[in-house]
Amino acid sequence: MNEFAKTGAVVGAAAVLTVIAFSMGPREVRLDLFDDQGELFFPEFTDGDAVAELEVTAFREASTDIYAFAVKRDDKGVWTIPSHGNYPADAKDQMGKAAAMLIGLRKDAVVGDARGNHADYGVVDPLADGVETKGRGKRVTMKDKAGNVLADLIVGDEVDDKPGAYYVRVPKQKRVYRTELTGKLSTQFADWIETDLLKAQSWNIQKVVFDNYSVDEQKGEVVPGDKLVLTKDNASKWTLEGVDADKEQTNQEKARQVGDTLGQIKIVGVRPKPEGLTARLERANGIEAQFLAQTLQQKGFFLGRGGKLWSNEGDLLFETKSGVRYTLRFGELVPGEGDEVTAGIGSEQPQEGEAGAGPDKPANNRYLMVTVEFDESLLKKPAGPRVSQEEIDKRRDAKAEVEAIQRAIEAWRTAHEGALPESLSQLTEKPEEGEAPLAELKKDPWGSDYQYLVDGETYVVLSHGADTSPGGEGAATDVRSDRLPQEDELAKLAGEWQTYDGKVETGQQEADKLTRRFGPWYYVIDQDLFAKLKPTREDLVEAKPAAGEGDEPGK
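and the corresponding structure tokens:
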């Protein structure tokens, strides 16, 4: 058969098939591209409290690296941030906002099924293999405590002229959708933590010490500097030690600013310390000691004799009315921005000739190490002897019995023309008519007899107290009818001691809690705040007004 004959046969066969198709009638054409439009992305994800892990993965074109910000909840319900050394997260509110973004999320519109267009919409999986860097989106994954995926979505570019609408794609699926994301998802470290570092309140600060020494790293010596001490009285007035009262006075505004600034210190970033740093310093020697010293020195902290720590920018100490003493040690500047500052990610300085080498990076932050201790001597003790509540209760009972005996004596006097009984036992004797002034003569709460002393027409009824001997102090003081108000004073004093003991317990608990919080971490704080915490003497004093200066006319 020649070529023309073959062609004719093919055409004929096609015509026959066409006739057969039409003879069977019209057929519906299904457009699969839109078959899931309007449906939920994750219909089984309905409870935000079920989320135990959130991971947001992004590809950074500038550095061609993958960065994953994760927040996880452990078996005890504690949230941490793995990318930042498992720093504790204050995640309840943020996780609720993040979950709200994906719960009930609908496929508003289907954009297309072409894999080749993923880069155009910015929905390329950031974890995908390959060297292509453009068009990679942000992948959001949520899991429950068993590791099951609750939601997994790649978020791409925002849709032009439609604020809040984004191109999105489910990983391992080709289809691209357009949808509106109404929740909030932050990958900023500061949004997931309690940023108030010290939780210090200016009204509670009663003393601040600026120890402005420095460290000469070349000579390995500590160079003393000015030591400024501010103290605050009960009227909240600050006084700088060493002020020449004849010529100058403390600048109250500047002093208050220091207290306010201590309450404004925010956490910018964190770095984990070597585990068990303090304990290891105490027993370290040889290579381990050198390693720890080098680790500290990189951040501007230096190990001295006996394990004492020094800082290249000096220390600031402040004491609170709670009896807690904070020590702030200021270290090196922290260069960089973003994750370099918050977690130290990518903070290694490039070597000469390497990509990224060039001008110094901005250094707007500084390392800070915080330690706390409780010092009972910072609390004001009650001015009087300590008496236990048990003894106070006994003295109260003794006082009541003394008063009862007094009433009986006065009743006796009335019945006997003003005469006093010769002994307390007479008070229990039944007269010819009526009842005895006292039903019985009891022992005092310590098992001794009440004493009855007569001096002319006056008398004293007393108990010798806990020591069963005359006189004494505190719990041993006699309970006397002529000094009954002292019992109220002792009861009041016992209450003051109870309050004091409560403050000691609270202060110790506070210091222990803060030690657990601060102990594992180096902090990064804002350099501008640091500058406010380094005042000079000239900043804290001002010239004393001349006599009469500032007075109103005529006064």
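(Above: one complete record from the training split.) Residues 1-31, 279-284, 349-358 have pLDDT under 50 and may be disordered.
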